[in-house]
Every structure is written in C-alpha cells, then in structure tokens.
Amino acid sequence: MEIQLTVNDDPTTATVGPDDDLATVLRRNGYTGVKCGCDGGVCGASKVFVDGEVVMACGVDASEADGADVRTIAALGTQDDLHPIQAAFVDHFAVQCGFCIPGMIIEAESLLAENPDPTEAEVREAIDDNRCRCTGYQKPVEAILDAADRMDGGRVAADGGARPDEEGETHE
Amino acid sequence: MSDDRTDPAPDGGTASQPATDEREAFEEHPLEWDEPANNDKAPEERDSVSQPAEKYDDRKLVTGQAKYTADYGERFPDLAHAAVVRSEVPHGRVTDVDTDAAEAMDDVHAVLTPWSEAVPDAKYTSAGQSYPEPSPWDMNVLNEHVRYVGDPVAAVAAEDPDTAAAAADAVDVEYEEHDHVVDPEEAFDADAPQLFAESEVENGIVGHDYERNRMAHIDGEVGDVEAALARDDVHVHETEWETIRQSHAQIEKHTTLAYTDEDDRQVVITSTQVPNHTRRQLAHLFDVPIRDIRVKKPRVGGGFGGKQAMVVEPIPMALSLATDRPVMYEASREEEFGAMRSRHPMQVRARTAVTDDGDIAAMELYALSNTGAYGSHGMTVAGNVGSKPMPLYSKVPNVRFEADIVHTNTPQTGAMRGYGAPQGTLALEGHLDEVARDLGLDPVEFRREHYMEVGDLDEIAGMMGGEGAERRIRSCGLDECVERGKEAIGWDDVDQPDEDGRHRGIGMALSAQGTGVAGDELGAAQIMMNEDGSFHLQVGGVDIGTGADTAFIQIAAEVLGCDEDDVVVKSSDTDNTPFDYGAYASSTTYISGMAVKKAAEDAKERILDWASRMLDEPVENLETADGEVYSEATGDSVTLEDVGYESVYGHDDREHILGKGTHSTEESPPPFAAQFADVTVDEETGEFEVNKLVVAVDCGVAINPGMAEGQVEGANHMSYEMAVSEGITVDGDGRAEVSDFDEYGLPSASETPPIESILVETHEPTGPFGAKSVAEVPTNTVPPAISNAVREAVGVRINEMPITAEKIRAKLDEE
User: Fold this and answer.
1) Which residues is B681 bridged to in the sheet?
2) Which parts of chain B sit beneath pLDDT 70?
3) Can you say how many angstroms the Cα of residue B553 is from the centroid of all Cα atoms in its chain?
4) SS3 per residue for B643-704
5) 79-118 in chain A: CB under 8 A from chain B
6) DSSP class of B139
C-alpha cells in the first residue's frame, strides 16, 4: 500500500509492505539518521517525533502512520548550524560511535520542550530507554543539562551557547 | 601448520621463560629510552595534542548524516538481503537440508547449504588476530557438524529482509543429534561428548586435547611458587571467582555489504575492527588473491572486540558470488546475543602465600575458561587473565599462571574489551582485599608495598612469552591515581546512613593493562600535501567510534604545525590506506598514532627543505606553527600554502610532498587505573545501591582529554554491567536465553551510578607525545571494587558475578 507522510515538512508518498515498520520505511526513503539497533522498540536508536510525540519508529507499523507528521534528527540542525542540544553533545564529547545519539537527542529535545530546567535525575529518567554502549550516560547527561542552560527556557541563548571549559562550566 | 605449537605465540604466549640475568635484562630493557626531542612537549607547548579538538565526525554523528554499513544499502538498487538458518540442536550432524520450498518462493535469489559450490569448505578461525593466527582453525562458513544452538547451517539471499527471513524459515534441516555438554567442568569428563575430532581442526594450539574438549592449556611461572607456598613462615590464602558471559551489546549490529565492483574485485563494506585481517581471511577462505579483495570500514556503531573477528562477512560474500548481486547481511538482535560473540565466562582461582606482616611470597592464578563451541581468541584471552593483572604486583618474586580453555556446546566467545583482564582483575583484586582483611592491613597500603613503579623490570608480563614480554616500566602514575581517587570518593571520611540496618562501604581495586601487543603489531600511514597547504592523511588505523581519527589528526597537526581542520583523514579502506593490524589490544593511538607521527615528520622534513630554499635559511633554523614555516633566526616566514603551491607548480623544480611512516615495537607499556566504589547495603534485604564510582587512570599524555574521559567512563559503565548484570544466560541446551536488550539487562541511565573519571598525566617515552592506552584498563575494575565495598559495608564476600541482593542476603543469612 501507499501511505502519505509529512517528513521534516516535506510531503512524502511511501510504499509500504504489510510487515514494514516506520523506521524501515523512513530509512528506505533516505532518512538514514533513523537507526535500528534492536528489532522492535527497545533500544531507542530509532526515535522520531510522530505528530509531536516521541516514538521508537521501529516499533510502529508503517501503515498506521498514514497521514502522520514525522520529524527525524535531520529536522533539528545541520552540520553548519547545529541545534543547541547537538552542539552541547559535540562540546561535551558525549558522542563516540554515535549510533544511539540521534535517538537520544530527539528524546532530549522532547524533554527540554516540556521541562526546560530539568534536574540530573529527570534527565536520566527521560533517556532511560535510550541505550548507549560507548559513552555510558555521564557525558550525555551533562550535555543535556548544559543544553538546557543554552536554550534558556526553550529559546536559544543569544550566544548560541558557548563551549564549556575544562571544568564543564560555560564561558560567559 | 604444526599440530602442537610450542614456540611463544604472539598475542598471548605459551612458553615458560627462563630466569633472566639482571644485567642482561637491563641491556635488553634499558630504562633510558632514545626519545626524539619533539616527543616530550610540555603542556604549554602543545598546540594540538592534549587540547580539546572537536571530534572529527561529531557534526555528522549528531545530525544523523554519518554513514554506517547499513546506510550504504540505498546506493545499490539491485541489493539483495541475507538471512541465516541456524542450528536448532546443540550438537549434531546435519543429514539433510531441504531448500525446495525456500527456492520456490518469489524474490528468493539463492539458498546456500554447506554443500553449495559458492560456500567455501576451508577451515578458518573468525578471530581477527595476527598471522599465523594464535587461534585454531576450527570453523566452517556453513556447518555440517553443528556445535551450538545458533551455528550457521544455511543462508538465503532475497529481494528484501522479510522475504529472506521467510525463506530461511522455509528451509528444512534434519539432524542426527549428538549428546551435548554445557558445563565447562563436565566437558573434561572422560565420558563427556566430544565436540571436535582431532582431524576437524587445523592450526591446533599448544596444550590442546580434543578428547577432553580442551582447546588449549597454558602456563607460565616466574621463580618457584611451590617452594614459596611450602615455606613455614607464610599463610596460604585461596579464593575462587566466577564471571558472567557478557555481551558486547554494540548498538549497531554486525552488518556487512558485499559486491563485485566494476573491476571484478570483491568489495566488502563492513562494520569491523580489523579490515586487513578480514581481507586476508576472506582471501584464504575463498581462495582468491588478497589484492582482489577490498575491505572498507565506514562509521562503526561500536566494537568492543565483538568486531575483532570476521563474524558475518563470509556469508554475504558467498551469497553475492552466488547471485551476482550486492548482498547485505545485518544480524538480528537475537542473533547478536545467541550467535555472535561474548566475553568468555570463567572460573578463576587465586592463591597467595603471605607472611604475617603482609609480604607476598607467592601469587598464583588458575583460570578455567569456557570458550564455547569454537576457539577464536580462546587461548590469548585466557593468557591475559594472568599477563595483564598480575604484573601490577611486579615486586612479588614467585608468580604462576595456568589456564585450561575448554569447549562446550554454548554460543561462541571472542575478544572483548579488557580481553581476559577483567576476569583476572576480579580474582586478584578481590583476593588481595580479602588477604589484607585477614591480616588487618590497610588494603591500599598492602597493595602499595608490592605494586609497580618506574624502573621496575616487569618479568611477570613475560612469564608466558609473547604478548607483554618482559618490559621496563618507564611511566607509572599509580600513586597519584590512588591518592586522587581516594580524595574524590572520600575514602578517609565515610559517613554511615542514619537508617538502621543500612551500611555504607567503599571498596577499591587497581588495574594494569597493556598498550598494543608487544612485538606483534604494525600500523602504517601516509600523508600527502595539497597545494593549498592542507593535508590528506591516509591511515590503516581503525576508528570504531573511539575518536581515533581525531587523535590521528591531532598528532599530525601537532607535527606539521597546521590547524586540525587542514587535515583530511581517510582511514581503514584496504584499497586506499596502508596496512594496519586493526583496532584492538589498546593499540590504536600508540601504534597507528606513532605511524601517523612518523609520516607527518617525514612530510615535515620535505616541507622544511622547500621552505629553506624559499626563505634562503638553513633547515636547522626553521620550525612550523600556525600554518606557517618560520625562521627562528630571522622571523621570516612562508605559509604552508606557499610551500604547497611552490612544491607542485614551481618553475625550477617540482615535487609532491609525501610522508610515510610505519611503526611496530617490542614495547607494550601498561596504563594504570585505581577504581573506587561507594556502596550502601541494607543488611535485612541485601539490597544495595552504588552511590558513586570513581576511576583514576594513568594513560600517559591524553591526546584528547575529553575523548579520553569518554573512553574511561564508557569502560567503567561496561565494567559496572559486568558486576551487576546476569549477562547472557544459557539454558540446559546451551541456548542463549537472552534475545533483546531488556532481557539482557544493559543498565540504563537511571540504573547507572554517577561515574567520575580522573586523568592522571604521566609521560610514556615510547608513545606518541607520551601517550599510552586508555580504553581497556577501566573495563577491569568495577566488579572487584563493588565486591570489596560490599565486604566492607556488611562483611560478606560475593565471589560470583553478578553481585545481587539475593546473593548478599543469602551470605548474610549464613553468618
């Protein structure tokens, strides 16, 4: 069957098989920032926004997404113009292999939209179903907390958020 | 291949070492090292090295633009997808494979069995090690004789993954079932089922005895342990330990895409740590010249040793040859747990002979390693159970290590971060803690009496020959690691909780590793200068997410005096980059990084030569920095861009400035770690919380401190899992009972304690700009530190991983 999606503001017609999940369909249509680390809704690497809600795309039947508005990691920032959360991950060396990172950043954006000033425990809780094997969670959590400061209540700070110094403090 | 090799094996080693005459040893392993003047730069003189350079691929990674193997699929419109039929019996012989139903399905392009022409029948090992491999050749690509639930029997290529999976389900396999054995001790029994006939293995390893399911036996000794144990002024202490079957759990599954290119050459794009070893092994299996195979590594979504092996590559290559199409194989997560690789589960016995005042007269470890159905990395991993942790106590005069590596009908094991050291470190550091308690000694001071310091000749590392052959210690930050770790965890001031029955304790453990495999590695690099003053760095070294490419750039930029952005790195493509042994044994920065440094110095020499002519100044007066070559005498300068254009477009003379470097070494300096764990235990329920982990690591000079901290924290996270998770449990048929992350119990963000990493800088003169390794040593230490902390808190000892509330409560109930 064919389904209609809006992916990162682009209207998209996708052909889907009866067993296809949304992650597979997005990847087949070039959105390879959506990663598949498990075989169905466990590791968090495939997280995207569907109609504003974070879902693991590998756990969603593609046919059920007909008509949905989807945002993937590609909607957040570009290499030349990183989203503050992406910039914080880079500046905190919170990325190693990077396979789980798009899903974790999607979840972080959702968290900060609802709770612009989270505690460390709230950040850990938010990314509890995002599995990271390389870095663990120390640096990603620090990056998300720093991103919250940079975004200043949902808006990006005027300086875009500066690189932290060695102590993890942000330069004025 | 000899049947029973007795010469010291690379990457592990087997032979006993004769006692060394001290003078001879000093000549062979002098403390002084002929270090180039530019290698020891003070922190304030470093422009690129030890600065927080942005990770080279980070912007691509955080925006989802980076390409992993599976992301290459969209470039091949005629791509077929593979699925594998795996044995459903733990041990037996395949008598028939009915492929008719699968072949009759629409969009199925090929179904291969052990007897298909496209399937190689050569023996091989999947271990991606040096050559000849110190692992037995005991595997086939598809198997008639199956030895575990999960052994590959048949393979399918189809139009899409779902069709491939359905076709694999439609393949009907008949077996003649044999008795099986799951328990490593029972595997030794005379009447235990035998997994291998002698004739089924090539390249047998020292001490093998297939009638007893023994793949190898190794031992080594320094001094005379028996004599020391028999002394009447010592107490003999003995403890036993058990470790889990830990999964690598890389988030990116094993994935390979194979095709024949326009020049009729076989191209394999694959998520691997060992492109060059994989190329050699594929050439062996498929009987094609090495030059006709190209192995290309894109971004890799984690390795940890699980990809230091040719795990899946032959199957898509065989299917590609059979179908004349590109074929991609992506393992399922269930296959990852049941049929890829894991850490060797082990039972380790520790024994020491200690005097009343805490002098250790002898120290001994014995390991029984369960290598599962096949022997890849079996002997070398077991060797490291002794040869990595025991040298920490280089002052102990009598030391022995012995190991049996035994086959069972369980999933395959392999290399994993730490490579045997985690198992040995648990046993040794848990044991020494217990001994200190028995003697009423401070556990830190007890260790300090015996641990390494600069100038020590480490004979223990050499006791089994080969890897870590005896060495002189030229850098050691153990004291500082211990002091800073103690301070960070609050060692001297431990408050007890207010609640009744809850007790807090801090435990500690030390660790040493190696940096590369002594005498058995090679890294190579080339640098070419572009006319705009930028550089292309081609390096065989393999970045599997660690940031190695960035470290290479920083090393090159430091030598060349250019900005990191002016170095383009191309790594790990056997057609386009020089040879490298691969990303393992903590060698990448040390071996491949040194090759990069040499290549950069070679290029710099040519740059200075050109600048000398352009500035009319002798080379001795010239130096590079900030994208320029300047004269220290006159202050005159030319830019690297000027040199670039002049060298290729010059009127009188022309040269493309190229630098090359290769590096191999007999050295393998140990990095060190001091681990601290702060634990609160409820004496009623046994429930415990790990309040904090602190780990201080001496990695020499950290080429990129932020990346190095990430390595330390990630390693400690993995080590924490080894202490508190069940790992991959198997049932009575040896079948993995774990099929997804939830069942596996990978600790989540809220389940993981805060980890504080401390980098202790020393200077290792044999490493590039003073660097040694960082990524493995903190993988070893959390299980013993938590076991020791629980012992401190409530007085019971947990020897068997994982540490659980049930086990603590059971021990408390015993008291």
Assistant:
1) B503, B688
2) 1-23, 465-469
3) 22
4) HHHHHHHCCCCCCCCEEEEEECCCCCCCCEEEEEEEEEEECCCCCEEEEEEEEEEECECCCC
5) 79, 82, 86, 89-102, 105
6) B
Residue B500: partners with Cβ closer than 8 Å, 6 or more residues away: none
Tell me whether A124 touches chain B (CB under 8 Å).
yes
Q: Dump pLDDT digits (tens) for B289-314.
A: 999 999 999 999 999 999 999 999 99
Measured between CB atoms, which of B52, B713, B716 is closest to A139? Answer: B713
B690 to chain A: which residues are within 8 Å by CB?
none
Question: Token pair for residue B310?
Answer: 């040719």
Is A76 in Cβ contact with B710 (below 8 Å)? no
Q: What integer pLDDT is reported at residue B464 of this predicted model?
A: 78
Crossing angle for the helix pair A84-91 and A101-114, to the nearest 10 degrees? 120
Q: Does A134 touch chain B (CB under 8 A)?
A: yes
Phi-psi region of B405 (alpha: psi -120 to 50; beta: other; left: phi over 0): beta
Residues of B in contact with A125 (CB under 8 A): 749-750
- On whether any CB of chain B is under 8 Å from the CB of A137, the answer is yes
> Hey, how many other C-beta atoms are within 10 angstroms of the C-beta on B611?
28
Cβ neighbour number for residue B209 with a 10 Å cutoff: 15
| ipTM of model | 0.95
Write down the pLDDT at residue B507.
Answer: 98
Which of A 17-36 lie inside 8 A of B, CB atoms?
17, 19-20, 27-28, 30-36
Report the length, in residues, of chain A: 172
Option in B64, B70, B757 nearest A73 (CB):
B64
How far is Cα B518 from Cα B683, in angstroms, rounded to an integer? Answer: 47
How many Å apart are CA B740 and CA B717, to the nearest integer? 19
Strand partners, B425: none
C-alpha distances (whole Å) from B285 to each of B3, B138, B305, B340, B581 are: 20, 13, 22, 19, 19
Tokens at B349, concatenated: 């016995």
Where do the H-state alpha helices sit in A12-100?
A: 22-28, 84-91
Report the DSSP pairing between strands B398-407 and B360-372: parallel
A166 at the B interface (CB within 8 A)? yes
